[in-house]
Amino acid sequence: MLGEAHGGVTPRLKKMAEMLQPAGLKPEISADILSWLQFHYVEYLGATGAILKAGSAKSFAASTALVRQAILATREGLAICQARGVPMKAAPFNLKMYSLPLALLVWIGKKQYQAANIQSFFDENIRNGLEEVADQYQNVVQEGLRLGVPMPALTALKIEYRY
After folding, report:
1. In this predicted structure, what is the pLDDT of residue 140?
2. Which of 67, 95, 103, 154 could form a disulfide with 76 if both were Cys (CB 3.0 to 4.6 A apart)?
3. DSSP for 36-48?
4. pLDDT given at position 68
5. Domain chopping of the chain, boundaries
6. Residue 60 above 70 pLDDT?
């Protein structure tokens, strides 16, 4: 997903998209990248927090309880986005996906998180970016508190970085 902060489709953005295509990537240009990033941000935090609890992405993928918690935490993060007034059209797939019945989402999540490339992605990002993830988590939780959004699953994740 590519976009400009101001929402325009610039020649620079088009050139970036064209440069990615020969590598087999299929970039999409968003007219509201900032809203899309907010949704993506909270989706990442739910899974990351549960992976930290499990000890690895592989252990997380094997745990129905932790996948469930990650999905509930993500739903709470999406509710924070909604309370902030983030336009829902920025991530229609995300919203439809997370409105499915919880049991179905857990089944889908367990299948998705069992993929080696997904596990590698999360483990690598945690290994090299936990400080940033912990800061992001604190920002989202503080925003949820400010807006009065209930977030028991998200706050139970307690993502921390110890120096």
Report:
1. 94
2. 154
3. HHHHHHHHHHHHH
4. 96
5. 1-31, 32-157
6. yes
